Amino acid sequence: MSGGPPKGLPSTGPHSLLDMPHPLAGSSSEEAVGGDSTPSPDLLMARSFGDKDLILPNGGTPAGTSSPASSSSLLNRLQLDDDIDGETRDLFVTVDDPKKHVCTMETYITYRITTKSTRVEFDLPEYSVRRRYQDFDWLRNKLEESQPTHLIPPLPEKFVVKGVVDRFSEEFVETRRKALDKFLKRITDHPVLSFNEHFNVFLTAKDLNAYKKQGMALLTRVGESVKHVTGGYKLRSRPLEFAAIGDYLDTFALKLGTIDRIAQRIIKEEIEYLVELREYGPVYSTWSALEGELAEPLEGVSACIGNCSTALEELTDDMTEDFLPVLREYILYSDSMKGRQDHTCGLTS
């Protein structure tokens, strides 16, 4: 037995994320043969998760770079920075003005999509159309089908727990509007996805349902042809590279989910503590009016409790509005990458 100190157990999961080798990093045998001890950029990126704050991907590479060749390199190039130089952009898209529609069979929300562009692909310099959530979902599915080698930005979750969140409340609708606006802006800033034909139709077509029906008819005919051609085709086993990427993403998503649950529990406890602080402040203030000699220190305690309440409220708002949405988008991006990885594996097979 070794006489060295025992190794500590990881906090969650079978392995620590920092200890996991990046799936695309070179193996030890290859490094021994090549004699190069410099770690790959992908491996450095994986290790940097523990040293730097997580940066939310912003769906797409900068306009001045070429399209990455793999999902891993694409993730490295995704950026959070939305402050792209306005002088270099020729396409602007905004999502605003949500409206509630009550019909006989259903009730839903639509959003106004305003597009301004100088590109030759657009017949007019400005368009304004209305779209509902399922139209955004249709667009994303079309982008995945037509751009199988690109990571498509995620959409906010469609389903909510009934009785817990009112999906027609102003707060929920505004939160979803912001997420849908960010989704379209990420596609708009992408040097490849922004030129997609389906994206153009989504932004300009007055009757999107008619276009969807045409696509469904064509898809049915193509599907029958593909079914006959691929009837006897058998996929090979999954390459080891894709299996390693899948394991890495599963572990990454698991740890993100754990952080999400812990953060929500912290926010809940902060809100409960904030309610108590707001009750204690007036108590000390009233007490000070009854105690002449202790009036000054009691007022000081009351003021201190008020300052703590304000600071705690700001901290809770920051976590709710800034931290949790970013964390959940990381989870959505992880799911998107796993979907892309499975699809790409099928193509390579």
Automatic annotation (TrEMBL):
Q: Which InterPro entries match?
A: AH/BAR_dom_sf, PX_dom, PX_dom_sf
Please verify whether the record's keywords include Transport: yes
**What keywords appear on the UniProt entry?**
Protein transport, Transport
Gene Ontology biological process: autophagy of mitochondrion; endocytic recycling; piecemeal microautophagy of the nucleus; protein transport; reticulophagy
Any one Gene Ontology MF annotation carried by this entry is: phosphatidylinositol binding
What family name appears in the similarity comment?
A: Belongs to the sorting nexin family.
Q: Where is the composition biased (Low complexity)?
A: 63-73
Subunit record text? Heterodimer; heterodimerizes with SNX4.
PX domain location, by residue?
A: 89-210
| Membrane topology according to the record | Peripheral membrane protein
Q: What is this protein called?
A: Sorting nexin-30
What are the annotated GO cellular component locations? early endosome membrane; phagophore assembly site
Q: Where is this region: Disordered?
A: 1-44, 54-73
- Cell compartment(s), UniProt: Early endosome membrane
The family database entries (Pfam families) matched by this protein are listed as: PX
**UniProt signal peptide:** none
